[in-house]
C-alpha cells in the first residue's frame, strides 16, 4: 500500500469519554517554535520536523492539510507533549549610570521550563469517498516569567512629580503568558482522477476552526504612561477571547501514487478583543492569529522509504500587535497618541512574516516498526533594533532536528513517539526605547511527544 497509514482497531464508544476528558484538560500551550506557532501538528509529522502537508498519517493532520483525511481509516489519536523551552535575555552595561529608561544590566532566565500539552483527533469516514473529522490542538503560544522587575528603570522614582504614587513603578515578576487552542471540524472528499495531468487520485478538504486564547501580562507598569488606556496594560490577571477562521487544502497523487503533492491555506483566525489589555495591544486589544500557507511533497522512493519536504509561510506582518515597530523614543510616543500602546499604530514587537523549510524521511523497518527523522529552518521574526522589547517574547529559534517512531503493538493499536530539539539561537541588538542599550535574547527547546492511535474499523 503506497504511503503507509499505520493504526489498528477498537470500539469507538470506548474512547469517547477519553475524548471529553482531553477536551477539558488541554493545557496552556507555549509552542514558541516558529515565531510563536508550533512547528507541526501530530506526532508523526513532528517526527519529521513538522513536514506532512503531503503525507497524512494521523487525525491531527487536519491542521496541516484537511484534504488528507480521506487517506485515513476510521481512527482516533490521543497525544501528549512535554514542551521544554529555555529562555533568557541579557542587557549590557553600556552607560556610566543606569539609563532611564533602560533594562537593569545582567542576564536573566525565565522560569517555567516545561509545559504539558494535550491533543486529540478522530476521523469518521461517511462513505468510500468522503469523511468528517474533529481535532483539538494547542495552536500556539508564548510564556515568559522573569523573577525581576525588568522594566524598573523605565519609570521615575516614586514620590516624584512624574511618579507621585508609584503607579508607574515596575513590579516583579515580569512576563507574559499566551495560550491559543483550536478545534477543527473537517469535511474532506475524494475527487476523480485527472489523466491529462497525471493525477491518479486527488481530494479536497475544508476545516472551519473555532479558537480560544487567554493572555496575561505582569510587570509592565511603566508602560502605562505610554498607553491610551493605562488601566488595561498589565497585572489584570487572565483575559480570554474567542474567534475562528477556516483552513482549506488539496492533496493529489501522481506517478502511480508514488508522489504526493499537498497545498493548504489557513485564514487569519479573527478573535474578539482582549479588553483587559486594550491599552497594551495595538487597535485597542486586537490580537488575531496569523494566516498560514503551506505546500509539501512526499515521494515514496521505495515501498519502505518515503521522503518529504514542506514550505510554510506565516503572516505575522498582518497582526499589528506583533508587527508594529518599537523603534521610537519615549518622546516620540508621547508626542503622537496614535503610536501609544493600544493605539492603531501602537508599539508592537516588530515581527515580520517568516518562511519555514522542512525536510524529512520515513523508513518502515518491518511490519511493526517505522522510523522517522527531519530537519527544519526558519527565518528570524524580527531585526536587531527591536531586540530588548522582545525579552517578553524571545522567539529566536530557527533550526529544529527531529526523530520519531511508530510501533504497531498488535491489532489493538500503535504507539507513536517524536523528539525535537530546537537549537539555541541568540539575537543581539538594541532598542530605541533604551537609549539605545545593547543586549540579546536567547532560546532553545526540547519537545517530547507520545501518542496512541486506534483504528476503529473492526
Question: Mind explaining what this structure looks like?
Answer:
It is elongated, with a radius of gyration of 23 Å. It has five helices and 16 strands. The chain is mainly beta and 458 residues long. The relative contact order is 0.19.
SSE-based structural type: mainly beta
The N- to C-terminal Cα distance equals 19 Å
Q: What is the count of DSSP helices, taking H or I runs of 4+ residues?
A: 5
Q: How large a portion of the residues is in β-strands, by DSSP E?
A: 35-45%
**pLDDT < 50 runs, ≥5 residues:** 4-29
What Rg is obtained from the alpha carbons, in whole angstroms? 23 Å
Total strands: 16
Q: Largest sheet at a glance?
A: 14 strands, antiparallel, barrel
Average residue pLDDT: 87
Strand order of the largest sheet: 1-3-4-5-6-7-8-10-11-12-13-14-15-16
Topology:
Blueprint: H1 16-25, H2 43-46, E1 75-91, E2 106-109, E3 115-125, E4 130-143, E5 175-191, E6 201-218, E7 239-254, E8 259-266, E9 270-271, H3 282-285, E10 292-300, E11 305-314, H4 320-323, H5 330-335, E12 354-364, E13 369-378, E14 399-410, E15 413-429, E16 439-455
Antiparallel strand pairs: 1-2, 1-3, 1-16, 3-4, 4-5, 5-6, 6-7, 7-8, 7-9, 8-10, 10-11, 11-12, 12-13, 13-14, 14-15, 15-16
